[in-house]
């Protein structure tokens, strides 16, 4: 399918507003936050309560934002990990996603502000993400959530963290996670190319280019060999005994093939996984849901999958 007209228009606008390549990480972060502000403002869907909290983590604490869709007890609980290449993003840039997810899934959502690279190298984000899961399970009742109905979700780098947290949770024996929603997740940081990486990462108008992926990896990983750690590349892990996964992918995303392969490897190992590939879409399209119809459809699919899996009453 051709590139969706809504996406084509937005990509043109983003290219025109591109930040100079020599900009610092701090300048790039500010630019990303400014790009997200209109999206967040356009979709500030109401929820019963939001609360910013501090979550204990190794070496200190991290911020998280809790979204409560309605005053009730026994609601499902979703840990959401934002995207941004492990370098960009925060609870503010993904506020619109978490609000809609809370409403549509009828679930308490905890948006995790894990520490970012390059200031905090791998595996800091992983440790923060897992600490947030443990904290949320222990404090679920405070927000009207059921610690027996926990899902993890995330987009891009956040999808990586959701997948890795599911593996760590299985290995711990606690099995807190009952569902995972992986939105165009990064699951292979080894640099081994797939057809979609070659075809779409090298395209002149690529939304996520080969150079960008290499730059993100350099910022995040402390050493090149860290790419082969299953906490960085979960596709290398044993994928048996994992909670059911919904993997959302985009047709024109360099990560599409590895996302489909991850779901295939889950199924081959005996775990359940479903893939939904959105035609005409690029990496990052769910964040654009206020302006892109398919983004809203994908987010609502994620919510419906969580609601169905966790049997909201």
TrEMBL record:
Keywords: Hydrolase. Pfam families: Abhydrolase_3. The keyword Hydrolase applies. Signal peptide: none annotated. Residues 78-286 form the Alpha/beta hydrolase fold-3 domain. Belongs to the 'GDXG' lipolytic enzyme family. This is Carboxylesterase. It comes from Thermoproteus uzoniensis (strain 768-20).
